[in-house]
Amino acid sequence: MACRYGAVPLTEYQHQLLADLAAARTDERYLAGGAALHIAPNSTRYSNDLDFFHDSVTRVASTFAADIKLLESGGYTVAVELSQPGFVRAKVTRDAHSTRVDWAHDSAWRFIPLVRDTLGGLLLHPVDLAVNKVLALAGRDEPRDFVDILFINDRILSLGALCWAAVGKDLGFTPLSLLELLKRRGRYRPEDFARLDLAVPFELIAAKSTWLAALDDAEVFVRSRPPAEIGCLYWSSTKKAFGAPTPADLSRGDVRVHWGAPGGVLPRLADFGLAEP
User: What pTM value is reported for the model?
Assistant: First the structure.
């Protein structure tokens, strides 16, 4: 699978830094977090950092050691701010520009394999970025996560389908318990968003209305699905997309469950009785 950098909320400096790191052609790190989520065209928020994930603690250390050599040979200055097993945070500077970069360990469990962008770097798939983000919002009350979830609900996956799937990664939740935590979010004031670097103005009243509707729709959806399917995504062969299936979708036999696995799994046409291309 491939994606392309386009008219996206990355600074020119971040774009160049990513390009320089991607030149290493390593498969031991992949971009995740806000920068990966908002790398899509017409995104709503600029990220002030770059988050690289790795499938093991050992890979965090080895990749950081290789990356710091690559960056310093390219004229960057790397100032480590925090270093512990499985996590390194540094400020990366060149000329008058800087950004924070994290190298961190995360589980290799995901729904979809990693995506390779046109510069050669690896990115976490948008669905898995969405799963991580909804779990983040459940665990912390950050305005940036709230902005991101509204973006995800509109562009990637509805909140109901996301709550249903996310518990496949974090087995400590049920869809309803996750939803209950999310219901405590959204109590913000306009000044909470003033410190965010947003691509478009944030309309809090409209956002709150959208959020409440998304919560209501999510509860209806998660209560409608069978417990045996908790933790899955739903893939439509007609729409060629993941989503929350409607009764009409289900009656057509158009929907199949899609489970996560170490490394992720691509939806297969064979699951619908169709030939692979």
Answer: 0.87
